[in-house]
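User: Can you fold this complex?
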Amino acid sequence: MPDETRAEVHDIPAGLVPDHMAGTDGAGPAPGTRRTARARAVSAYHALYRTAGGAARTGGWPTLATLARSLALPSAVVLWLVSLLRIDPHGMGDLGLVPLLPDTFWLALALVLVSFCIQVYRRPPSVPMLVCHVVTLIALLHATPSLLYPTLRYSWAWKHVGVVDFFMRNAGVNRALRELGAYQSWPGFFSTNAMLTKASGLTTSAGYAVWAPPFFNVLLIGPLFLIFRTFTTDQRLIWSAIALFFLGSWVGQDYLSPQACTFFLFLCVLALCLRYLGPRSVGAPNVPSPLTGGGWRSTRLWITVATVVMMAAIVPTHQLTPLMLIGGLVTLVVFGRQRLVVPTLFMIGMTVAWDLSFAWPWLSQNLGGIESTFGAFGANANSGFINLAAASQGQVLVAQVDRAHSAAVWVLALLGFARHFRSRRELALPLLALTPIAMIFANDYDGEMIFRIYMFGLPFAIFYVGAAFFPRQTAGRSWWTRLTLPAVALLLVPGFAFSYYGKEEANYFSDAELQAAQFVYGVAPRGSLVASATSDFPWGFTNYEVYDYERFALEDRNYRQEVLTDPVGTFTDMMSLDKHHHSYLILTRAQRFDVEMTGMMPQNSLSRIEQSLERSPNFVVLYRNADAVVLTLVRPIPERTP
Amino acid sequence: MNTEPGRMSPQRGRLLLNAVWSPLRRAPRWRWALAISGWTTLLAVLLAPSASPPRVVLVFGFVLVCPGLAVCLLLPMREAVERWVYGVALSIALAILLNTALTLLANGSVALRLVVLATITTVAVLIATVRDGGERQRLTLARAQEVEAR
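Assistant: Here's the predicted assembly.
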């Protein structure tokens, strides 16, 4: 039988296939029978087209509704690509990318979401089509800046490129480094990227770092699917929750960073634990262990080994994720998941061992700061929020929207929990959603703890946002639900857009800003001082460890006032030859926005400082373009002795 | 045939060889491709021009997917999708562990890193293939005995 025919035969339910066509007993291909790649592709195409359109099955012309369904996704992609041509990121203002996004972009997003909801309600839902929708949604949300911006987005991404650059040039760690010293104690992610970059023959990781946000978000689909599937077989609930997760996940820790990588591993570890090491395993079919041929004991053993390997990789990669994972595992153990005792003990042991050995030099230096924030619930909870009284108008709106957006997600989750809990009393997910909150007692994590708590709790809370629409297998068929799901998804779009894209004026760097930074790193000799208002520019991407850095806008209020009152005197002192043989002050467009949006300095402060220094005979402009200026202290010429 | 104590008889040796070789011979092509993926990548790193697209794709594709996927063949998984998800997770985890260990030992060799990952991949695929072949053989025998008994 030709492969194509066999592929089509396999698409027909087993009982309907005549024995002679199926090749064996009518139940599918014989063990060991292999279909060619072409046959598989034909089969997949038919499966996709049949579920999308229905025309392949009927053999007739597709109806208008079928055609509309089939064309929704390609149309959204075309609209999105058209939008990209219409956006000029250089025109960004106080609300970031949001006002620049044209109607076609919003229309593309709306099309994807409405089409997704229609696919969710099909009986049965086509999983390949749902995957295509979620991937398109991720592309729209996270690949837009990657395609739009001429340079790598976000200053921290540049720093991480710099740390990768360090490990490309150095075989080992250097614990004596003060700048970005923590990365020398948790080098896992950076050394791995250094290997990838060197093995590929690339000179820097900046090229592929641009694609990190869509990459890491696509990766998350897998563990989210597996976690949700452990608690329900309802594909509508699973995929609604996954799509809503990407609309709720606005914290933006998806750039080239250790936390993006360990977040994926964190979810994979919990997926393994929940699927194989929880009480639900008791009712599941007994999968014999492949190596020993034994039952559950050996299965658990091998799954535990896989879990420990992933946990071991998290420990030397990121400071916070191990603590979040320990919190989750301990909570599950305490609330009756005794089978997780061994992995939990391993995780605690590995984390303590790493922190007390390799990471101890850094931890001991920073112990004072850690102790001072321990137990300070209120201060830790508020430290991440910007001061609304001082922030710019646009940023006040962005902050209010992101707070409302997060609250809305949690309110929906509570509603879903109430509806779902009546039919299924499962506590693992609510516990995992709430456990990160305990970390607010431990530390403020440099003002980011509240956002990290939201991030680590979201994958579990979002399940209940989906459950608000589909609390039971039999529920969620009413017209009310059919309307509310797309309505809620569409309402979450502006919330996500403001929260994620609202600070883009600080995260976007023009070519001119990058050129100024490249100029500084190109001319500055080893041991120079690189001064700036904030670290919000492409800094440290090469040889970062050989320079000293000063960020005057991040200093205390008195110092900032001193800078404003007497810029020439302050910078002459900061950049004096007694301290550094060469000093460079770089002021850029993004830094101006950064100090103004957070209210660190009054409006136009950086322009005034720049003008004062330019007028002073002590300073000279070394480099200038439309978005940046580089100044240095005039070097005194030594007197000639007769 | 009499053999010295402690020495394997030729017949037993042949049987053992057959038990190992037979599943390897029947293994699907993708398993062979997976088994040699690391060595192909190493070859590309040594021979292909720097930053050439095939080299970049091979390096990223191998390091981020193949070692974990090979190890996943050894794990008892309920669904095919799990092999891919945990395959990528284990690949990343193995790469991080290896790189951290060698970085702490101040060893910067990229070739050594690729050789270790390629060895893990090949060994895991071979073990899984031999084991699956043995299991399939046992199942076929059991089915044949069942048919005979009827």
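Residues 27-132 of chain B form one domain. The radius of gyration of chain B is 20 Å.
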